[in-house]
Amino acid sequence: MAYDFQVTIDSAHPHVLADWWADALGWEVEPSDEAFIRRMVAEGRAREEDTTTHHGTLVWKVGAAIRHPEGTDRAPRVLFQLVPEPKTVKNRVHLDVRTGSDSMDDVVERLTAKGATFLHRGRQGPSTWVTLADPEGNELCVTE
User: Fold this and answer.
1) Which of 9, 6, 58 is nearest to 37 (CA)?
2) Is the CB of residue 119 less than 8 Å from the CB of residue 139?
3) DSSP 50
4) pLDDT digits (tens, 9 = 90+) for 8-58
C-alpha cells in the first residue's frame, strides 16, 4: 500500500516561515478557518492561548502549512510546526528546489534578497546546485 505524506519543518516562527517558503516556491499558504478556530475555543476544545493573529487573521499558534497551487495531488503539503528549541545542527533532510526554465542564479539572487543565506555551490558530474539556508537556518538546495 502506498501512503500519502506531508513534509514537516520545525520552526520558531511557523507563520513567517510559511510565508517565506510560499513566496520562494510560488505556492500558497493554506487559509485559516477563523470561524472553526473561534468555535473550538468557544466549545472549550482549544484555548485562546492556542491562537495568535498573523497579518490580521486569527490562526493556530502551533503551525502553518503551504501547498502547491494545483493541490496536494501535485505535491505534498509542507507544514511549519512551532518548536521551542532553535536549530543547532545541519538538517538531515532538506528540500531541493528545481528551477525549471528559470535561471538558477536568478532564483538564488531572489531568495537571498528575501532573507536566505548563501552557504556554498556544489557540483557532482554534470549536476550543479547552490545550498542556501532559509531565514531560520534550514538548508535547501537550488538546482536546475
Assistant:
1) 58
2) yes
3) G
4) 999 999 999 999 999 999 999 999 999 999 999 999 999 999 999 999 999
Alpha-carbon distance values, 32 to 52, 55, 56, 143 (Å):
11, 11, 11, 32
pLDDT per residue as tens digits for the range 52-79? 999 999 999 999 999 999 999 999 999 9
Alpha-carbon distances, residue 65 vs 42, 59, 112, 129 (angstroms): 24, 11, 22, 26
Using the structure block, give the residue that is written with the C-alpha cell 531568495.
111
C-alpha cell at 117: 543565506
Whether the model clears a pTM of 0.90, i.e. scores above it, the answer is yes
H helices of 30-103, in order, are 34-42
Angle in degrees, CA 38, 76, 144, rounded to 5 = 130
Please give the Cα distance from 22 to 18 (Å, whole number): 6
